[in-house]
Predict the 3D structure of the following.
Amino acid sequence: MQIITSVSDMQAHADALRRAGKRIGFVPTMGFLHAGHLSLMGRARQENDVVVASIFVNPTQFGPKEDLDRYPRDAEGDRQKCESAGVDVLFTPAAAEMYPEKPVVFVAVEGISDILEGAIRPGHFRGVATVVAKLFNIVRPRTAYFGQKDFQQCAVIRLMVAGLNLDVEVVVLPTVREADGLAMSSRNSYLDRSQRQKATCLFRALSAGEELIKSGVREPDKIRQKMRAVLGREKGVEIDYAEIADADRLTPPETLGGRMVLLVAVRIGSTRLIDNLLILC
Amino acid sequence: MQIITSVSDMQAHADALRRAGKRIGFVPTMGFLHAGHLSLMGRARQENDVVVASIFVNPTQFGPKEDLDRYPRDAEGDRQKCESAGVDVLFTPAAAEMYPEKPVVFVAVEGISDILEGAIRPGHFRGVATVVAKLFNIVRPRTAYFGQKDFQQCAVIRLMVAGLNLDVEVVVLPTVREADGLAMSSRNSYLDRSQRQKATCLFRALSAGEELIKSGVREPDKIRQKMRAVLGREKGVEIDYAEIADADRLTPPETLGGRMVLLVAVRIGSTRLIDNLLILC
């Protein structure tokens, strides 16, 4: 496995690969890799000639009071995991390499960036769309792989790719879960034993919402209330939102139909956790 | 010369050229081509294996009260000029091809987009940066050619390219002028005979400013006043601005030094004209 830290080296390497007709699959991450990331790398390995993974904790997608400074890191563990997952090139630029100057260029995806996660984390999706556009221009993949756990992020990136005519296929793979349903997330490492117990409430709330829909309920408000009730039962869990939305535009539906998504976000202590379930109805 | 109107055809063609190791030079235009455009095509022809020109009057860079609807067009004349200039591929997408949906994705270049032209044309440079990013992703050039007449646009594009890590070299070529100094511009076609006479005031103002600097004057205000005086002498010419700025950041200098640029913008009747001069002092 080759490790590249410079933007121009990565760009030159990607350019040479493309000229040689190689298909590049790309897994952008913020590191502290878990089974969710590894499933993306596994799929990328199956579908491409060359797999590039990146580890970059992107400062511009964190708010001033968020967890940039304490975001978990494990460079050596990540390196080994990438190697075992069959990654060919690990791109790990420093922040000053990605942003040599105070950034003034931003990619904005209007509308979808201001709701749900975007309403709670202003500027977050602008930071995400910008860094993913940069990474796509540096790594030049044919296909990029993302986890469904960050559902809204995936929707933002799909819109960004279409809007900027980036020649990249975006593949979203299912959320990988712990045995008790908790979605894999690097931020789970923040949880103490008791918080870790409570954290199962996200998946339980989503499952309760799904069950209600399967039982024939079609009023969005009833689904929301059900999910909030499950989340609200846990002491020390503060609800940011519990929503049902159109799976493409993430806007709230008047009645249920087609591809819907249940989305929940909570704070447990100082840790924010999100999860979602896709539902066809 | 090949004419391509579809984004996916252009993208596929560019991809094939790059895989074949061909160097693509790109001249993006809004059509109604003049000697300025042709000088860009000539340089692109010298420096590349394949020359792509685009003609696209980009709606998102026009304000609601601007001249989008009456912007001059001459599809057949432009085609012939491109052919004569040695263009290999002419990319002429319809607006619905570039923006199949109401656009929600925008590239913003903060700071520089809000001054001078940007102050008078809010949203203009956001539209420019976005469409140029799109065109670069569609045409995949190694080098793109722009005219210095749109000085601030060139600065915005350079920042956009750096900020998004686009692997494109931006080349800016000198403004081509009529015999009496008027900068070539598609918008000159709006001018009647008397307005066309008056329009030389832009170059006269810039030249007067340059002369003052060459005579040793170093106070920005004196330069501005001189340029405004020349412009103000013409009846029916309204001044939008007459400025001196740092040539890279376009910010006003306290004292003169290094690469400076004189910039003027006026309205003559309903026609807006801009011009500039680079000065080393």
Remarks:
- The radius of gyration of chain B is 19 Å.
- The mean pLDDT of chain B is 97.
